[in-house]
Amino acid sequence: MNTASQSDSAGGGGRGSGGHGNTTDIAVVGFAHAPHVPETFGTTNGVEMLAPCFTELYAELGITKSDIDFWCSGSSDYLAGRAFSFISAIDSIGAVPPINESHVEMDAAWALYEAWVKLRTGQAETALVYGFGKASAGTLRQVLTLQTDPYLVAPLGPDSVSMAGLQARAGIDAGRWTEREMAEVAARAAANAAAKGGSATARTEQDVDKLLAAEYVADPFRAHDIAPITDGAAAIVLAVGDKARELRERPAWISGIAHYIDSPILGARDLTISDSTARAAKAAINGGATDFDIAELHTQFSHEELILARALGLNGSTRINPSGGPLSGNPMFAAGLERIGFAATEIFNGAANRALAHASSGPALQQNLVATLEARS
User: Fold this and answer.
1) Cα 150 to Cα 372: distance, rounded to the nearest angstrom
2) pLDDT at 226
3) CATH level 3 topology of 149-226+254-374
4) Is the pTM of this model over 0.85?
């Protein structure tokens, strides 16, 4: 097992958060998610969204709650507007029999990383990872601002769209991408979402021109450049070795996973690149081939795909976000986990043999996780 090194790079670069490659015995075997809707009528602890996801997984895999050795969730008390919201979310699991569980205060993709580590230690054979967020319950931009650096960033009051806008403008001014390229990303995402994973060739130059004719909502962003925030929840089941083969005919084996973080100070890093994504990809891929069949990227703004594709070294043959990606539905604190789930689904159904999944947390692609998945005989 190879461990990603921990180091600082010059110019305010990222500190390694750890990663491991060449994982051969842990697989994604199940994935379910709640509908992407602007508003739900449930509570902020996500119970009403999570319970159907668990029921779907139990039925699909032929398991019960007692078959899960470890549970791990991702969410935000800031977003829920209550302390320990993840504790009340356990109501969706049930109190009896008792469970072994943990939680991360960020996107549930990082909960999956914790569960993966748990399975690597041999303390569990199965894990259920879930994430939830009810963005409609509060003022999202203000909430996310509270999670920025409390000394140098939060007092200025920048919201997530404003900070992403600074990044998009920096790339345009530096000649790294254009507004047309951003619109092409958005058009393809819309075409894929409409086709439910179909080919990106459905988009046309007329579609792109139409998008570019729209008014700015936050220069250089038009409406199509910003992911529509939705309420939502998602859940994934992991299993080890023979257990995975029992539960799924074609498991999505995790061949590598790593995450790194960049400086929270926007002025201390080059916003037109993503050093932490490149480091995570290097650790997760570990010298392997980069000709992935599909890549699910946590792109909450259109320009982010252009940054990530370069950082990940994706070639032109890789289908990006065949699910439509977050630009077609962005459930807070579950969208990153969904990227892993949608990538795994492509392997489940035989549409892909090798897939890459990416999740992000923090403003302007501050922290990034990369996972590689594959089918095996």
Assistant:
1) 34
2) 97
3) Peroxisomal Thiolase; Chain A, domain 1 (3.40.47)
4) yes
